[in-house]
Every structure is written in C-alpha cells, then in structure tokens.
Amino acid sequence: MTANGGSVLELRDFRVTFPTHFGDVMAVRGVDVDVAEGELLGVVGESGSGKSVTFLGLMGLLPRSARIEGSARIGGFELVGAPKKVINRVRGKRVAMIFQDPLSALNPVHRIGDQIVEMILSHQQMGKKAAWEKSVELLDIVGIPQPRERASQYPHEFSGGMRQRVMIAMAIANDPEVLIADEPTTALDVTVQAQILDVLQRIRQEMRTAVVLITHDLGVIARIADRVQVMYAGRVAERGDIGPIFAHPTHPYTQGLLNSIPALGRERLTPIPGAPPNMLQPPSGCAFRVRCPHAIDACAGDLPELRQLGDLATACIRAEELTALRSVS
Amino acid sequence: MTDAAATPVIEVQELVKVFPVRRAKGIRVTKRLVQAVSDVSFSIGSKETLGLVGESGSGKSTLGRCVLQLIEPSAGSVKYKGTELVGMSREQLRPLRRELQIVFQDPFASLDPRLTVGDAIAEPLKIHKVDGDHLARVRSLLDLVGLSPDHASRYPHEFSGGQRQRIGVARALALDPTFIVLDEPVSALDVSIQAGVINLLQDLQVELDLSYLFIAHDLSVVRHISERVAVMYLGKLVEVGPAEELYTGAAHPYTQALLSAIPEPDPVVERERESLTLIGDIPSPIDPPSGCRFRTRCPKAQPRCATEEPELIDRGFGHPVACHYPERLPDSISAAVDFQSGSVG
Amino acid sequence: MTDLLPSIATAPVEFVPETVPTAESEGLAKSISPRRMALKRFLSHKPAVICTVILAMMVLFVVLSPLTARYGVNEAIFPTTAERSNRYISPSSEAWFGTDEIGRDLYSRLIYGTQVSLQIGLATAVIAVFIGTAVGAYAAMRGGFFDDVLMRVTDIFIAFPFLVALLVIRNMLGEVPWLEPILGERTSIRFVIFLLAVLVWTTVARVVRGQVLALKEREFIEASRAVGASNFRIVTRHLLPNSIGPILVALTFTVVLAIIAEATLSFFGFGPQLGSGATSLGNLVATSKENVLSGHWWMVIFPCVTLLLLALTINFVGDGLRDATDPKLQRGGGRA
C-alpha cells in the first residue's frame, strides 16, 4: 500500500504563509510529519502553534491567498502544487478531516443519511440504494443506536456527540487512508468525549486508518495516541512515542506544558511565563526562547532543527546539557 | 468575625429556576418549562472554595447567576451572611453587589470593547461613588493581578486572552468583595496560561479572604482549587463532599463516570484503567426523567429509580449522595491512582 | 482604602506576573482605540473614501451658494426681448445648464434646490434616528408586550407600499386640525420633514432594536449589571456606544430615503411648494417629466444626474461606514 517506508502520510518542510495587511504571517515554518498505517499521531499545541493550519493546508482548505510550500504526500502521492481537480479527488477519498464544530459542518435541511450518501457517491460508483445501505452501516460502525431510523432524521435531532459521530461516519465513508481530527472533542462534554475517543480508537484498530488527532488537551493524547508531536510557533518542538514524551520530555516547552496542568500532589501549578507567540514577527531562532527558563544567547541564532536524542526527537539545542544537569542534581 | 462555620458566607436552600419555553406544534402552542435548577441546597464558608462541576444541561451556570441574583430564582432561598437575597429589589441589592462579584468565562466578550481597561475597572467605583483616587486604585488593582499599571489606558483588544481574564478579575475585585462566582474562568484559555490565572485566584483568595464558587467542567482544575466539590446533573446535585474524598471515593455512579472520563495526562494511568463510558446522551432539561434523573444512563438503574427520587443525604459514605444504590469502587477505577507526582524536567 | 490592598510582595516566589507585551513588541506605535481602528478601516475602503470626497465637494458647493450660484433662484438670466426669448435656452456660456420655461438659470436653481433637499433629508434623518433609536432601544430592553407591539407597528409600516403610505399619511396628517400650527401647511417644508420622519423612523427602530438585542446578552453587559449598574447607565454608556455603527449607517440610508421620497412626492405634485420661485431638487426632477418629449434634454439630465449622484455617494459612504464598524472584523484573536 505504501511505497516509502511505511508512512501513509508524509510531510516534509511544510510551510504555510498568509499575506496580510501588516505583512506575511508565517503560520507554519517547516514541519515534518510521518504517520503510519493504523497509527494514531497526536499533535499538541496552543495558539499560534500552527497545528490546525498545517493540516488545513494539507487538505487545501485554506483561503486562496495562503502560500503553501514544501511536500505533502498521501501514500506517496504529492499534494502540494497539485491541480485543484486532483486535490478534490484525493480529499474525501484518501484523506478526510473532521472538525471541532459538527453543527456547522452538517447541512440542516438534508437528512443525515442523504448527506452521507452524497459523500459516498462523490467518490465511489454505486447505486443510490446501495449507498443508503452503506450509510446505515456506517452509522452503526460509529455507534449510533437504531441507525436505520436515525439515518432518516435531520441534524437538529441529534445531540452534539451524535453529530460528531455522524461527521466521523462521513469521514470514513470512503475508507480513507488518513483521518485528520481537528479538536474533535473540545466542544463536547467530558462523558461524550470519552465515547468519541472510543470510536476513533475502534476505527483505527479495525479499519487500519492512520489517524491524526489535533488537540491542546494532553489528557486526550495520553489516552489514545501512539506517538506525539508537540508544535510551537509553526515548528515541531519535540516528537516521540507516547511513553517517553510524558516520562522524560527534553524540550522546555513540553516540560512547561506538563508542569502547568493540575496533577495529584501538585500544590501549585507552574505556568509558562509570557504569552503565545506573535506569528507576524516570531522571535528569531527558537521562538520559545523568550519564555524559556533555560535560554542562552545561541538560542537566538539559527532555527533549531529536530534531531534524535535517545527515544525522542527534540528541537532544543540544550537538550543533552539539560538532561545531564537534571540527572546530576 | 463570628465563627465561620456558624454563619456561612453563602447559604442556598432549595433553589429552583425554571424557564418557560414556548413550542409551537402545528397551531397549538404548548408552554413547557426548562427545569434548569431543581431544589439545590449548599453552603460556602469563609475563605472556602466550592467547586461546582457538571456538563451541559446541568444548570451550573444558571445556578451561579441565581446565587448572585443576576437571574431571579423561581423559588428557594439564597442568604448572604444571613441576609436573604431572594425577593430583594434592585435598589436593595445594589449595596450588596459590592460584596458579591462574578468573573466570566469568555475573556473576549466580558469587556466592553469601547472602554479602556482602566475605565472598565473603574466603572464599579464610579457606580458606587467610592471615595478616593480611582486612578490609583485601578493601578494597584492591575498590579495585584499581575499586569502593568501603565496599561490602564489601553483597550481590551490589545491584550491576550489570559490578560483579559486577569482584567476581569481586577474588575471583580474593585469593590473589595467577599464572595466571587467564577464561571468557567479558565476554560477559554490556553493550557499554559490557565495555570497563571489559577495561581492568581488562589493567591488572591488567601490575601483577600475571598470565598469562591468555582464553576467548571474541567474536573482536574476543580480538584486543584476547591476544598469541597458539588457534582450537578440535569439541575440537581448528585454528590457533594470534600474534594479529595470525592475524587478518591465517589459513591454516585455519575460522579464515577465523570471521573473516569477525565483523561489524565499520564499514558500509563490512562491505559491501565478501565473506563466507565456512559451510554446515550444527556436528556433534555425540559422533560427530565422521572425519579432519579440519571437513571436513563445509569448502569445500575432499578425500577425504584424511576418512581422514587433519591434525596441528597448522607448514606454512610461521609458525604451526601443522591442515589438509591451508591457504592464506592475499587481503586483501580477511581481517578486517584498515585502516579509520579511533582514536576517534570 | 489603602489597607484593603495588602502588598503581594510576600507572595510565593513561583508567582510570576505575566509580562504584558509592550506596544513595540506588538508592532503598534501606540494604543489604538476602537474608534481609530474603525476610521482606519473606513479609509481603506476605496469606494467609500472617493464618495465621501465627492459628497463633501457637492455639499460644500451647495452650501456656498452665494459664491457658486450665478443667479438668484427666481431670476431670469436676462429679460425676454423681441429678438431673443429667455425660455428654454440650451446650455451655453450664459447658462451652464440651460434655462427653464421662464428663463431662469437651471444651474443656479439646481444649487438652491439641492440645498433645500439636503436640509429636508438631514432634518428627517436626525428626527427619525433620534426617535427610532430611543424607541428601538427601549423596546429591546423592555421586551415583552411593548416589544411585540412595536414590532407589529413596524411591520405594518413596512408592509405598505411606500408610495401608498406616503400619500395616505400625508392626507391623514393634513386632516388633523390641532397639528396644523405645529406642522404648517401640507406644502410646507416642515410638514414634509415630519411626514417623512414618521414613515422612516420604524426602519431605524428595527435596526437599533436588533443591535441592542444582540448586545444585551453579551457578558460585558452582564458584568455591569453584576456591579449594580442601572438600566439607564447600561443603555447610555454601553449599548448605544457599541451600536454607533448601525446607527450611523441608518442615518445615511435615512437621508437617501428622505431625499428620494421628497422627489417622489414632488413628482406627483405633493411636494413642498416653497413660495416665490424657490424650488427643491425633487421639484426640479419632477418638472423633467414635462420636458422629456419636448427635447429640452437639459431639464431632464442635470436634475436627475444630481439626484443620482447624491443618492449613490451617500449610499457608498454608508457602505463604508458599515464595513468600518462591523464587529465581525474586530477580532481580538483566540485559540488556534
């Protein structure tokens, strides 16, 4: 299925720039991504990290004025620079995306079943009846009870969690190789969030879909991600398997994130001082340096590249040094 | 000051709030009622934080506003330091508004975009005709919440979300209140910024002897900041107790499901624990289920649950629970597995 | 007061006050008020700026009539003689826009007439906006029965075809005896202004009501309430200032509406008859209907083009104002 070492989705030096009134906003400044079949990659970041923009750019969902550079391949097929017609064929068929707010993504005047059928028929040849059957089947896969009756209902008759499941059903309708979920549970209640995460788990296990889960919630990542990518100011700060990232992160930003959330035994939280970066004029060199307790002069120099350090890939030039200091103290 | 336990700062009893909703079915117009808050009672002591958790439809935001009389309760009583607030006219309430304040969730909508930050913070002082130099007070308030006093002449859009939230806190503190309702104060902020605001709230509580009603859906934040926690479901309190006791030994199935659903930022813990995923959706508060409102999603619902509403009383677990069959769960499922605590890095 | 704020110098060491990004780091020279931001946005809307300039020039021209007009409003450019009639002279160096049926200079009359029409338009707009804002804001705040009644009243006004309503109300108002001293004759300017204001205020009320309703539930309003602000304070200090945008836009379209309505009234002979030869733009446009077939093209073209230009420029300015004050463009940023 894949010709290039197992990665279903591969981004190399991916860049997105928005021209604005005040100048160019470099939202994504050279990002690499690899996701293998059946793997769930968690992408973590806050405001200005570029985590959503990266994948919106990949899907061709950004305004026309946005400049996209670099490489983005689905199963070896290059998307950057491809003609619109080609992207439309790939989008929905080989890579699908679901968003934070399912309500605005569903058409309120069409039945749910019809909307899924529309999704199916835009990429597959099938009779209408067969497509309807498939849509009922999909609703069942995502865990909607009484799928046959529900398929004839309208979006307003579904709750938020149900709608998100419908979005997932639409997304997997054409059996895509990659499913990108952009903050799918942020707007949902905690108990419903758990249900949706279960659905995502099941999909990637049973259908072997590669899943990219974009979120700011480290708990969600901890629950279902295999690998994690931490983004800051349009670049990747750290990357690795889930265990090492949480157990011994090497990048000060990752550490800062983990230290700032409530946990048992913590009397006091440690916020990261400063504010999220201004992407119009990000700090030179490592953008995190203005908020980093370990910054040195060299951090303001070149843009730090990701490099392998044990079981993690880190973009902090002082990573080894700081780890050594920690183990000594 | 008298014994804090004897006169709680806030005492709510049997508070009820219903909203009429008119649904037109064909030509018939039926009047239905949203049971936003049903028969809620609790109290908050001096310098205490009561955390109020619940999901959508729980009525927690409505409850917060009812306590402050921003929404008029349909029935029940709210006493501030022994004085009954329900039924007071706006004139009578005004002087009390100095002592009861609120901080909102949305840092962008909670400030008038046309007023400078200084003007926004000074407005309470102007309304209540407070003596003294307003500008000086505004500056010291800004300093108190960790912002530069020189920025009093700037406009809200020039600040980040976390800073705007701090401005909201400064405004709430302007009249030196005793009690503050915090309605999801950090939900709209980036994770790393939340910590700063949470720390600020904790420090201020100690420095200024404040009591808080901390409303949130993020249970880990609530646990961090609250002494006691109340869990709300569809307008009713299902369990109330000291924070640690609730998180380690919850007895109500909803609380347990809620705790089980919060993802912990520790993959080892997450993978090892079983989750109690609830089936179905939260019912509409217009027609809540009869008897125990949680029974439609409860894994151990019995016939009795449909006919008899469980009261919020002590059933032998040390704190009130509203369930006919409460039960503590073995440790592997509860959310308080001790993992490596402390800082990372 | 001072003892209420103990210093936090004793706060725990980890309490790191956030560094507020200074103006320089944000790339801004100094604090920009929302008003200035709106102005900047307006200035970047090219059609609006051009039209503002054109409009300003027109208004200035018209206001400085002693300087710009060449003749009096009722003055023939020269008396008719046996050799040369002063009637219907086509545009020439003596009369830039030609003359009318009694030899008066159209150009000068156009200036005076536009002056009158602008007065009517502005006066109507001010009255209508004043009443409309007050009623709309009150209805939105009060809600309930009053609001329902207001909505039905405006619905009625909107449902009637404009012309029909215009003429019917004109008749009705003229019949009421005790109003006559206040409004004057049916053909007076005062009456016309009042008539138009009565028709137009409902649209303004709707706009303002909509805006206030939208703002009423915003959290900063709730915050003011929580501090004990009275309804009056909330309306005057918070709701109305934040509604300036739609109110300004309502003002502009009311002016246009009034000017065109006046022209419509004149077209049917119900316009303001100002004695001693004075005229209004509407009057001039109205007389064009007699001249279309007779070949006196200047009598048609110049008044109509002036009316068109006036209406278009005011409309575009209104567009620019709307874009400049549209809250959707006022983003404060948010989570990525």
Written account of the structure:
The complex is a heterotrimer of chains A (329), B (345) and C (336). Chain A is an alpha/beta fold and 329 residues long. Chain A is 33% helix and 23% strand. Chain A has helices at residues 51-59, 84-90, 102-105, 112-121, 128-141, 147-150, 160-172, 190-206, 218-224, 242-247, 252-259, 319-328; strands spanning 7-20, 23-36, 40-44, 67-74, 77-78, 95-98, 178-182, 210-215, 227-232, 235-241, 307-309, 312-314. In chain A, the strands form two sheets. Chain A has an eight-stranded mixed β-sheet with strand order 6-7-8-3-9-10-12-11, with helices on both faces. A four-stranded antiparallel β-sheet of chain A has the order 2-1-4-5, with helices on one face. The longest helix of chain A is centred in the middle third of the chain and has 17 residues, at 190-206. Chain A is globular. Chain B has 345 residues and is of the alpha/beta class. Chain B has eleven helices and twelve strands. In chain B, strand 7, helix 6 (191-208) and strand 8 (211-216) form a beta-alpha-beta unit. In chain B, helix 3 packs across helix 4, helix 3 packs parallel to helix 5 (161-173) and helix 4 crosses helix 5. The termini of chain B are far apart. By secondary structure, chain C is an all-alpha fold. Chain C contains 13 helices and no strands. Chain C has helices at 34-43, 46-63, 65-68, 106-142, 144-159, 162-175, 180-183, 189-216, 219-227, 231-239, 244-267, 281-291, 297-325. The relative contact order of chain C is 0.13. Chains B and C meet through helix 2, strand 6, helix 3, helix 4 and helix 5 of B and helix 1 and helix 9 of C.
